[in-house]
Amino acid sequence: MAAITSAVIAIAGVVLGWIAIEIACKPCLEKGREAIDRSLNPDYDPDDDNSNNNIRAPLNPTPYLESQPNNDTSPSASIKAV
Q1: Does the pLDDT value for residue 57 go beyond 70?
Q2: Which of 12, 10, 30 is nearest to 22 (CA)?
Q3: Mean per-residue pLDDT, 41-53
């Protein structure tokens, strides 16, 4: 009878530990499971994702001073701006 009691207590401890880990790491585990589901889905095409709409944005956007008309780009002008 003691062996059965010990086994039940051990199984209950493992189950409670599993539940604690699931609750503590829920956001990370959900993201991982979604990634696994997407990678296993044969109909999923990563090119169809519209989450990154600014893919054609310039790598070096023009600074604020260059967009102003009649700006003075001499070194003294940058010192005056500071």
Answers
A1: no
A2: 30
A3: 71
